[in-house]
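Hi,

I'm pasting everything inline rather than attaching a file, because the server keeps stripping attachments. The sequence lines come first, and each chain or strand is labelled.
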Amino acid sequence: MPSGTILKTLPRAPSIPVDCAHCPIREQTVCRPFRGPGLEVVQEFKLGDRFLPAGSDLFWPGQELSELYNLLDGWVVLYRILASGRRQIVDFALPGAFLGYQSQLDQPTQLGAECLTDVAVCTFPRKSFNDLALRHPALALQLARLNAQALSRAHGQLANIGSRPAVERTAHFLCEILLRLRRDETAPLRGAVDIPLTQTHIAEALGLSSVYVNKTLRELREEGVLVLKNGRLTVLDPVRLAELAEFETEFSAHEKIA
Amino acid sequence: MPSGTILKTLPRAPSIPVDCAHCPIREQTVCRPFRGPGLEVVQEFKLGDRFLPAGSDLFWPGQELSELYNLLDGWVVLYRILASGRRQIVDFALPGAFLGYQSQLDQPTQLGAECLTDVAVCTFPRKSFNDLALRHPALALQLARLNAQALSRAHGQLANIGSRPAVERTAHFLCEILLRLRRDETAPLRGAVDIPLTQTHIAEALGLSSVYVNKTLRELREEGVLVLKNGRLTVLDPVRLAELAEFETEFSAHEKIA
DNA sequence: CGCGATTTTGATCAATGTCAAAGGTGGTGG
DNA sequence: CCACCACCTTTGACATTGATCAAAATCGCG
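And the predicted assembly:
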């Protein structure tokens, strides 16, 4: 179980606002600018906390949200549904993600958000959020930065899905997730990590069929690159993985132009 | 030539700051919050204007930018380059787009920006932009909103590339561009529009080969849906196009759940 | 009028999807 | 503690989409 750090320490009762001063992940969230004395600003604005079990939905596509969510703990998958019924996963939200924000806050969202693990979020009122941001420039800027980060991730996904064959695509995807999980650690990405993804999730994220994802993972396993089994990802050959995933060499192709 | 409205009326000399009061697209840009008296804020911050011919590059992947750009006129294509040499187009910037912003302003950009038409941009200093935003909350918020918009577009592209077969994918792509061009007009999207895209551009955006894009466009033509010829897109059957592109029915698949 | 870039077409090939059925795995209730 | 169940994984045979290659036709432009 990859989640639980917060879930185990916070009260399970729904909608009990937790003291922001003890928020263990404030540094990674939209609340980051509020430190020390200024903290009561968010504390007052905050509506409460909510806890959701794995498999439940935070919101659905087409829904008119009244809240915004700060993901405190757990994994949430963001997706779109197409008329064909197919579902496309567009991002995986990790703790610190800010969910539900869009340029028109009074419009229904296009996204759905499903909990992959048990999840803890803290909630803010949606309608008045822009006003709060206008009163606190650092908050607005942090919001812009979070959105820019998500945009960059989406562009990376686009390049991955649009331009790489299945094996490289899968390698890149897993590598990206590993890097997000180990953000700070500079150590090479050897070893095992728990990842609450089924092969179907990976397929929906990568635009492949789940059967083919399975065959692709087998190839990566037989090549001795990595093993994904029972929600546990083990990297056997970090170097080969990074090669396949094209990490670190992403811009070299264009250096000649400069 | 789809661009030119501004290019024809502004002086061609490079780096002549134009009076922001006469900026014809301020309403669509990041500068939107600055009206009337407050306008000298941007006017002073602005470095100057720049004019680029079609085919030139505004910036390259891996470059450390010192400026940010407000696209005043023309089309700019944003792309990433993969180690394989393949190029993936991740967005088309239209007038009003704000280019070069990312969560870490001192990092090199992952994106390249190439002018599809003659282009006019106005430039801001990059390093101090966050400071300006902190002093002007409405600017920071507008920045967040622009980024959220771009993010939503990227998610739409992801769903398109990841989940739709070539014909629908192409139909959706063209439909989306048409809607962006006719943003305000509610009229059905019949008729002809100039679009400065080669079939290769479309291929690079959709993750298809250019040969197959050609075959796909032929099919759309033979089905009487649309014709794309010599940079001019003519929609023959708007209803069928919207059906193929799955516009307007995007969420209906999930209404059952609610 | 001619040249480079784009578009178009046909033939062939490779990558990925679909279908169907057989194992695993973990969770739940008796 | 065991048995069962739902869901996930794995595999093979086959179908299909889209890629690649190569050559001819067309277009924009000097």
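Residues 137-163 of chain A form the longest helix (27 residues).

If the labels don't parse on your end, tell me and I'll reformat.
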